[in-house]
Design goal:
The structure is a homodimer of 216-residue chains. Chain A has 216 residues and is of the alpha+beta class. In chain A, 58% of the residues lie in helices and 7% in strands.
Chain lengths: 216, 216
């Protein structure tokens, strides 16, 4: 039986592929493995039955015959370790690809999420305008460093890997912020990743869920 | 030759073991592997030579004969994969331990760091007092969930693993915030981890660096 992952029944991103199931869908597509999706509502995610699967009440959670996992990083790594296509064979190159997964999640994503959270939850607060330049600067510091490392390479370390997959999904969260406009090499990196057939299949699959939920 | 990691020459935590080299030191001690430390100043960390090793100008970076790595999560995982003591042999239990590493770094740490950053950089801002309850609530939500999952177990999933190592180092960053006071089971979890001889050796090693730097 194929593994099952959970995803939002009604994603707040309106089908733009910014929810964290996108990472796992894309990973499955890159390695050519089928998967099933179980859609969950926000109230369901906070219930004890779901928290037994995912203690923090988030998506995605992963389940196969023998194993329950959560955290998109852990699930992508699990898929990448068991199937060809997302990690190099060479041991050092493999460790470096995993290093980029952690860099995406631990170093680049937090200031991006912090900025998004402020834009959602503090937009009407009197301090919103005053704080935003600081939050933008924190994101830009990471983008500067990432662009410097990427240089004019196609991918972060040799061939496309799970590290690029994770980094691109993190950068895509900047969406309509405009912050990527100053980083043409990072914008091109994202476009290059989005052109991959595996990305496109994953994107269409999550978009179909949104369209079905919104009656479209 | 032993691997070398980088650490702060003068840690801003004043020897409390909150800097991210502590995670890697502790991992080396748990698996009984010797390591060397190269101390770096803040100006050195921003120079091109250091950024070649660590593109984001942070500590720790890792170097052995064949490999350069960064990100404490990636380094701890690399150590755990190559030596006995931090990951279970059973494949499913191993994947779950890695899942807890990602949960510590991606889900529990970001609101803790966000709160710390506000306390450091926004303490004198007019909005500081108004925002703090929101930041506390974000941390508490994760602590509630973590405490619920831990229950009365010693460790997050069976025996002590790299997942616990990472989670404990993340929780310790709450330090003097007082937020852990409401979570006796999490406080006891930290104490249990800190009692491990490997933790104590790592703690003493980083403390010695601080004492030497401060002439103590």
């Amino acid at each position: 039986m194929s593994p099952t992952i959970t995803a939002f029944k009604q994603s707040p991103d309106r089908g733009r592929g910014l929810a964290r199931d996108m990472r796992v869908r894309w990973a499955f597509e890159e390695v050519g493995q089928p998967y099933d999706v179980r859609l969950v509502t926000f109230p369901e995610m906070k219930e004890p039955a779901y928290r037994a699967l995912q203690p923090f009440g988030q998506i995605p959670a992963y389940r196969d015959d023998d194993l329950t996992l959560f955290e998109s990083g852990a699930i992508v790594l699990h898929i990448a370790e068991r199937h060809e296509g997302l990690l190099p064979d060479d041991a050092s190159a493999r460790a470096r690809a995993i290093c980029w997964m952690f860099a995406a999640l631990s170093t680049v994503e937090p200031p991006i999420v912090e900025r998004s959270m402020a834009a959602i939850f503090e937009r009407d607060e009197p301090w919103y305008e005053a704080r935003m330049p600081m939050l933008d600067a924190r994101v830009r510091a990471r983008l500067d460093e990432l662009a410097a490392r990427l240089g004019d390479a196609d991918w972060l370390d040799g061939a496309f890997s799970a590290g690029d997959l994770m980094m691109v999904t993190v950068l895509r969260r900047l969406g309509s912020s405009g912050l990527l406009d100053a980083y043409p090499s990072l914008a091109a990196y994202i476009v290059r990743a989005e052109a991959r057939p595996a990305y496109q299949r994953a994107f269409e699959a999550q978009l179909a869920v949104f369209k079905a939920a919104s009656g479209g």
